[in-house]
Write a structure and sequence with these properties.
Layout lengths: L1 H17 L24 E4 L4 E4 L3 E4 L2 E7 L6 E5 L3
Antiparallel strand pairs: 1-2, 3-4, 4-5
C-alpha cells in the first residue's frame, strides 16, 4: 500500500512538472504613452433633452427656466435658476 502511495505521489509530481508552460518570450518594446486629451469644458446634463449642454446655455427643465453656470472651482458646471 505504501509503495502504491509513493508511486502515485511521484507520478503526480512528474505530471505537474511536465504540464507547466514555458515562460513567455520577452515582450516587444513598450508602446508609447497615449497623448493626454485636452480637458473638456464643463457642461451640464439636461435630462429632459438627454444631452449635455455647454456653460451659458439656457433651458427649461421640468418647466423651470435655468442656465448652465460654472461652479466656483471652474472644473464643473451646474444648473442655476435663470435670473430674469
Amino acid at each position: 500500500m505504501r509503495t502504491f502511495l509513493a508511486t502515485s505521489a511521484i507520478a503526480l509530481g512528474l505530471s505537474a512538472c511536465a504540464g507547466q508552460v514555458p515562460a513567455p518570450a520577452k515582450p516587444a518594446a513598450a508602446a508609447p504613452a497615449p497623448v493626454a486629451a485636452a480637458p473638456k469644458a464643463p457642461q451640464c446634463w439636461n435630462g429632459d433633452a438627454g444631452a449635455f449642454m455647454d456653460v451659458g446655455a439656457k433651458a427649461s427643465i421640468s418647466g423651470v427656466a435655468v442656465v448652465c453656470e460654472k461652479t466656483s472651482d471652474g472644473k464643473n458646471a451646474q444648473w442655476m435658476g435663470a435670473k430674469h
